[in-house]
Specification:
Strand content: 15-25%
Distance between the termini: 15 Å
Order of helices and strands: EHEHHEHEHHEHEHEHHEH
InterPro entries: Anaerobic_Co-chelatase
Radius of gyration: 20 Å
Number of domains: 2
Keywords: Cobalt, Metal-binding
Number of strands: 8
Pfam family, one: CbiK
Largest sheet: 4 strands, parallel
GO molecular function: metal ion binding; sirohydrochlorin cobaltochelatase activity
CATH topology of the largest domain: Rossmann fold
Helix content: 40-55%
Length: about 280
């Protein structure tokens, strides 16, 4: 039995990491955009973190499903195809694991690409983040379509990092962000891997900036990540302040920006388009 008769029948399985309160707020916002832009498409959510899955069951008796469980459910309902859309920002080990997990289920899959997968994605991500540059810290940033940080004030995008070959994505991001905003005051760094905190701090200092805005380059900026940015003496904020650089930071991750969800919608549509019917 195959209940797929037209492209709009193909289910989309959106795969996120976990379901903390802050993450759920972000996912709710993204889900609303997905359903608005894909009104006839059945959209399901799956969560890849086994730790979160077990914690939700233990603490709240809530049984959230991982990607394989959702795909198996769809298979049992008669679906022969599904789009498996990750919410990863870059390709890497986790994306490969997701694909492997999906392939354990006897259902044909079209894998939606991560946020940053093409030059167009990088440029759209840069434009989606305009409000961060012109609205978060009005004392040190200009506004308007050509918004860019004023001289002597740097913006540092801090990602999770990876030892996968896609670690170079962070440097590509920096280069394209600088090009889009016609500035040399945007830097990237990561919590794990390269370019690590010490390297980024020295780059900012040597460039002569006296202020810095820390921006979490993650879909959801959870508690642990915020502690890495602005927490104890080992945080990014402390490292910059030790160099005499004034620090401000924002708390929300990229998932709260509508333009980021729009990129994922495009990737979902691309994944749907390659499915033969």
């Amino acid at each position: 039995m195959n209940i797929i008769k037209k492209r709009e029948d193909i289910p989309v399985v959106v795969t996120a990491f976990g379901t903390t309160a802050k993450a759920f707020k972000t996912y709710e916002k993204m889900d609303a955009i997905f359903k608005r832009e894909l009104p006839e498409q059945p959209v399901f959510w799956a969560y890849s973190s086994r730790m979160v899955k077990h914690a939700m069951k233990r603490n709240s008796n809530i049984d959230i499903k991982d990607p394989a469980e959702v795909l198996l459910m769809l298979k049992e309902k008669g679906y022969s195809w599904a789009v498996l859309q990750s919410l990863h920002l870059i390709g890497g080990h986790e994306l490969h694991r997701l694909a492997s997990e999906g392939n354990r289920v006897d259902i044909r899959l079209s894998l939606g690409l991560p946020l940053l997968s093409s030059p167009e994605d990088y440029m759209e991500t840069a434009r989606a983040m305009e409000s961060i540059f012109c609205g978060i810290n009005p004392a040190t940033h200009t506004s308007g379509a050509s918004a860019k940080p004023k001289a002597r004030s740097a913006v540092v995008l801090v990602g999770h990092g990876t030892d996968h070959p896609t670690w170079t994505s962070y440097f590509a991001l920096e280069a394209i962000m600088r090009d889009v905003y016609s500035t040399d005051s945007i830097f990237t760094g990561v919590v794990e891997g390269f370019p690590e905190m010490e390297v980024t701090v020295q780059r900012v200092k040597q460039a002569g900036f006296s202020k810095v805005l820390l921006v979490p380059f993650m879909l959801v900026a959870g508690v642990h990540f915020q502690e890495d940015l602005t927490g104890d003496e080992d945080s990014w904020q402390a490292a910059f302040e030790k160099q005499g650089i004034e620090v401000s930071a924002i708390g929300d991750g990229l998932g709260m920006l509508d333009g980021i969800s729009t990129i994922f919608v495009r990737h979902i549509k691309d994944a749907l388009d390659v499915i033969p019917l």
